[in-house]
Model the fold of this input.
Amino acid sequence: MVTAELLTIGDEILYGQIIDTNSQWMGVELSNLGVRLKRKTTIGDSESEILTAFAEAEKRADIILITGGLGPTNDDLTKPCLARYFNCEIKMHEEALTEVTEFFKSRGRELTELNRQQAALPECCEKITNKMGTAPGMWFERNGKVFVSMPGVPHEMKRMMTDIILPKLQQTFKMPVIYHRVIRTVGIGESFLADKISAWENALPSHLKLAYLPSLGEVKLRVTAFGDSTEQLEADVNEQVQKILPLAGEYIYGYGNDPLEVVIGQTLREKKLTLSIAESCTGGYLSHLITSVPGSSDYFLGSMIPYAYEIKMRQLGVKPETLEKYGAVSEPTIIEMANIVRAKFSTDIGVATSGIAGPGGATPDKPVGTVWIAYSDKYHTVTKKLQLSKDRLINIKLSSAAVLNLIRQSLPK
Done:
């Protein structure tokens, strides 16, 4: 087993002023190599804390990847801390200086003395060229352990990792084989899903591990296999996927990285069906999910957001008597909304949402989180009542996911 630890350095990350997206990306890339990530740590701009983190990480992991703290200002401490940790001096690196000089020259900018100092590196490191910026990366080796320091700017780090660091790690370490497959489910909670597949999970071979990855509206199952052959591991995982289908197949909508809106879009395109939307409580979020998919114009014609009573009546065309008798959040109203928007846009399918997202607007019989959704095509109209949370944004997202799932379940076979 080859293990790694990630260290992100900077007060701005520690205080939440910027989000650390580097660790997530590196975690995926390391996993694809077969490296087992043991820990991620964020350290502020403190020399003593940084040095302590280096020492602790070296005890736990074979590979220590560091991002941040390589800028030219006084609060950028990573380089001097690495020089001190590896007990070597910082001196001007002529090749790095040439690269930094050319970087500024190519952009018509003056090379200041402060920026010139970015080419000064610890003598005991191997320089890693930064093709996207001015701060070189640094590679250190000691006692079979590797430290790599990279800029915190994501596009600089990613280019450096992809071009140089990941291939060099493969050459330096004998990597095990790890294979992942993600099974995506919708319409069932984590605990209910776990109960349904418990016998299958308990019978998994010892070299296969299962992880539950719940998020709003869905639960992903990640099956991870460890061994010597990618082909054999893939076959082993596929065999187990076939065994789970009788237990949870009705909730499985796809595999891998594609979210529900992508899978729905692929299905609509394959079936040559078009879609329109009338969304009230979701306020356009459902349309946003649909149109976030490249090529969605192949199947999505448009939407309306009839938020107010008057707009539901005048612009969409819901009958006044329906609204007066049943209210906007009701099954009769949602049926009319889905049917009318389908007719107005001349689409094969119309869907609609109407509910009380909160925190206000509730009544004794319709508390916050009460949402009606509907699906309509030329064969049938399907409705569903949701009883969700007291959080407005969560209700909007859960309602949108529920509509996508209703489309999945209701499409003509």
Observations:
- The chain has 16 helices and 17 strands.
- The radius of gyration is 27 Å.
- The chain has three domains: 3-172, 177-255, 260-410.
- The domain at 260-410 is CATH 3.90.950.20 (Maf protein).
